[in-house]
Amino acid sequence: MKTIKDIPFSILDLAPIPAGSDAADALHNTRDLAIHAEKWGYHRYWLAEHHNMPGIASAATAVVIGYVAENTSTIRVGSGGIMLPNHSPLVVAEQFGTLASLYPGRIDLGLGRAPGTDQVTAQALHRDQRHATETFPNDVSQVIAYFQESTPAQRVHAIPGEGLSVPVWLLGSSLYSAQLAALYGLPFAFASHFAPDLMLPALQLYRDSFEPSPSMKEPYAMLGLNVVAADTDEEAQCLFTSILQQFTNLRRGTPTKLPAPVESMQERWTPTEEENAKRMLENAVVGSPETVKAGLESFLKRTSADELMITAHIHDHNSRLRSFEIVSDIHSEAVLPSTGAR
Asked: Using CA atoms, how far apart are residues 262 and 253, in angstroms rounded to an integer?
């Protein structure tokens, strides 16, 4: 059974915009967290693409990845993920080829199938979402091909990009993505931080169906996990109310900046909303260092994840830093093995 000491820990950041703040502050906080994350020994730092979200500043994901990579030196930086239906495969390959040329050996490309927004905004992105979703497998193949060495008959080239072998991951919250990642022999990142119901079936399908590829001989599964840590259980539970409020507002169709924490959610949601939020966030680990350690151990026992990608929507930046520091302290005695995925 894998334990905390056996696997790498990484960070997923959506560059949250706290209430009372703006996108500039959020992006500066992202830079600061990434600098600390590198010092604390996190393995990779990923940014996620979302659009038309007042509480998220990472819409121009490749740009933010460059900003983080420029301000760090060793941590891997990548996308968790780029929503491929919003982009042409060539543009994605060029963007990440550029990043890989500037920051060699440090860039990851995680690809997702969802648009990362609502349908009206998806149309504003000027992409045929229905068609793009149907062609997702072929688009993934095209992205991978653009990173390989060219052939004599090839007429379109990704420059930069060609020959750089940028690691490509598939992201997902469904069985579809698990099956495709297995078929293509790619590392798989599952969104268990908001899609707990299919987590174990997706993992089993991916592992059972995995076909070795030139880049991956064995399956490699990374799981997203909400972790809010503080010096006491009570403080952590209070900090966690920010994401509970944000999630509830999103489900109501009224997305907001990340709200400040509150002492109680009792008057802020209906019983149905409470049930929905707790079901979607049931994997979250919230509490003191002792509570978080026990929660991480329990999660790994259930999943045998190859890597954990920690995310934390915490309103106060210093409290957010402290949360990730606590997690790094829990993990700090580990001697990280050579991983199956770069």
From this structure: 21
pLDDT digits over 235-278, tens only? 999 999 999 999 999 999 999 999 999 999 999 999 999 999 99
Residue type, 164: L
The residue segments making up the domain with residue 196 are 4-331
Where are the strands (E) in 209-325, listed by range? 221-229, 285-287, 307-311
**Rounded Cα gap, residues 149 and 173, in angstroms:** 32
Task: Note the pTM of the prediction, 2 decimals.
Answer: 0.93
Supply angle C-alpha 291, 293, 299, rounded to 5: 100
Q: Is residue 336 part of a domain?
A: no
- 337 lies in some domain: no
- Determine phi and psi for 39, rounding to 5 degrees: -65, -35
Ordered alpha helix ranges (H), 41-160: 61-70, 89-102, 119-124, 129-134, 136-146
Contact 43, 11 (CB under 8 A): no
3-state secondary structure of 108: strand
Q: Evaluate whether residue 227 is within a structural domain.
A: yes
CATH code of residue 307: 3.20.20.30
Summarised one tens digit per residue, pLDDT across range 140-194 is: 999 999 999 988 888 999 999 999 989 999 999 999 999 999 999 999 999 999 9
Q: How many structural domains comprise the chain?
A: 1
Give how far Cα 21 sits from Cα of 13, 14, 48, 301, 313, Å: 17, 15, 20, 39, 14
Residues β-bridged to residue 225: 310
- Is there a domain that residue 321 lies in? yes
